[in-house]
Amino acid sequence: MSLIPSIFGGRRSNIFDPFSLDLWDPFEGFPLSSNLANVPSSAHETYAFANARIDWKEMPEAHIFKADLPGLKKEEVKVEVEEGKVLQNSGERSKEQEEKNDQWHRVERSNSKFLRRFRLPKNAKIDQVKASMENGVLTVTVPKEEVNKPEVKAIDISSYFFLSSQIASVSSSVIDS
C-alpha cells in the first residue's frame, strides 16, 4: 500500500488487501502545494456510500441484515422483496457542496447509488419483513417460519412378567385348540 495519496482521489479496490478499502487518509488536512491533490471530502463519502457493506446474521427466529449508510435519510433508502425470494436494498443520494474563501469559489455535485441483493432462504416469512433506520444504520429483519417438529408418540413399556403371562395364555389356548 502506498503512503502517497493519489492526486486524483482514486482508491485501489482489491478485495484481497484489507487496507485497500480503508477510507482513512493520513494526509487529510495537510497543506499540499498542488490543487490536484486537494481531493474534496465528498469523494470519500461517495466511495463509502457506493461500496455499502451489509452484514447478514441468522438468528433462531429471524435473519437480520445491517447496513452502515452514514448521512442517508430513510427517504433515500428502499427495501424491497422481489419475486418473493430476493431481498433488495438500494439507495440514492444527490449532494451539492459549496465552499467559499478569499481566493476562489467552488460548487461540487455528486450523485451516489448502491444496490445489494440477497436470495432469501425458503423459511423466510416474506409478508412480515420489517426495516428500520437509526443513526445511519439500516436494519432489516426477516422472520423465519417455525420448523414443524415431527409428532412423537410415547410408547408404554410393560414388564417382562406381563408379557410372559400373556404368551403363556396364548400358547395354552393354541394347545387347547
Any chance you could write out the topology, listing elements then pairs?
Layout (H helix, E strand, L loop, with lengths): L40 H10 L3 E5 L3 E7 L8 E6 L3 E15 L4 E15 L10 E5 L2 E7 L16 H17 L1
Antiparallel strand pairs: 1-2, 2-7, 3-4, 4-5, 6-7
Description:
The protein has 177 residues and is an alpha+beta fold. It has one domain (18-28, 35-147): Immunoglobulin-like (Sandwich). 15% of the residues lie in helices and 34% in strands. The protein has two helices and seven strands. Strand 4 (86-100) and strand 5 form a beta hairpin. Keywords: Cytoplasm, Stress response. Its main location: cytoplasm. Residues 84-106 are annotated as: Disordered.
Main features:
177 residues, alpha+beta, Immunoglobulin-like, 4-stranded antiparallel β-sheet, 3-stranded antiparallel β-sheet, 2 helices, 7 strands, 15% helix, rod-shaped, disordered N terminus, unfolded protein binding, Small_HSP, A-crystallin/Hsp20_dom, 17.8 kDa class I heat shock protein-like, HSP20-like_chaperone
